[in-house]
UniProtKB/TrEMBL annotation:
Residues 5-255 form the Thiolase N-terminal domain. The lineage of its organism: Bacteria, Pseudomonadati, Pseudomonadota, Alphaproteobacteria, Sphingomonadales. It holds the Pfam family Thiolase_N. This is Acetyl-CoA C-acetyltransferase. SUPFAM superfamilies: Thiolase-like. Belongs to the thiolase-like superfamily. Thiolase family. The keyword Transferase applies. It comes from Allosphingosinicella humi. It is an enzyme of class 2 (transferase). NCBIfam families: AcCoA-C-Actrans (TIGR01930), PRK06504.1 (NF005077). Its EC number is 2.3.1.9. The keyword Cytoplasm does not apply.
Amino acid sequence: MSEAYIVEALRTAGGRRGGALKDWHPADLGAEVLNALVDRSGIDPAAIDDVIVGCVSQVGEQSFHVGRNMVLASRLPDSVPAVTIDRQCGSSQQALHFAAQAVMSGTQDVVIAAGVESMTRVPMGTPFILPAQAGIGTGPWTQRIRDRYGVTEFSQFTGAEMIADKYGFSREELDRFALESHRKAARATDEGAFDREIVPVSVDGQQHKRDEGIRFDASMEGLASLKTLKDGGRVTAGNASQICDGASGVLVVSEAALKAHGLTPLARIHNLTVTAGDPVIMLEEPIPATRRALDRAGMRIDDIDLYEVNEAFAPVPLAWLREIDADPERLNVNGGAIALGHPLGASGAKLMATLVHALRARGKRWGLQTMCEGGGIANVTIIEAL
């Protein structure tokens, strides 16, 4: 089987809801990343075999095939095909898996995996809110599904509280983790750790190249003042991921393409794993998925130099750390979604951009990325920095 290499991995800086990126159409925002991938890698855009785009809320401005519209809004020739996929929060991580699988199989040589989500212009939940408001249909979960699992709906907020309960995490522990996310992200920003991965975009004549969600003055007192999302709960807006606008992309190529186009690889993709489990607690799946990925790769967690575990809610990475017996000093070293934002369909490739460049900046070799996804699914990707 052929190898798959990452030649470039980029993202926009996150925009808060109603913030710097509010006037950017998602297709245009995603197009900026596609253009930057081509410009920075030096690849002939006509050589791109496919563009695979992750997006969760595929309605409104993200409807009618946002992946293809990103290509049409970019400088790529219209001969470049595209497809839009949805694996919930893991959509663009799955796009990366599909891109790598295409290259490894030998069916394609140059594939872009990307993601986009404007949570300002297409608010979270819009795909099922609009039909409900119009009185059309009964929603995504049939009575058969509800009966099978004994619930009326599947909620990630409920899943986060269930994990906090199961593992006995206190509100203070969740807030402490959130505070560290902000501190790490603030330090990384001040030190220029994100400069290599960020694609600046124009906003009011200025270049937006700094993640808006980071609270440089975050404190335990401030986090403690926030209300929980449910009475008697522990999860708050402060220890959960931030709503975010953003786009991201990873250029994946074969060894033949490296030689043919004179490209320099940043990393090699070592393992691709996806698993599924309980759709009610839902957010716990990165734990068994990581175990399977390490087993298939013949590795131990101690072999991995850095890990990116999406901070959908603080209980998720905390439970992962405990169950995997992982080193907290290697986790989300530049902060995570609690500070940097979670632009849903763009988060998978966004985390990969951060992981690739963090490994190379530190002279480290092995990286692992995982994230919880709606429906109780999780992707895991292991890479080797070159």
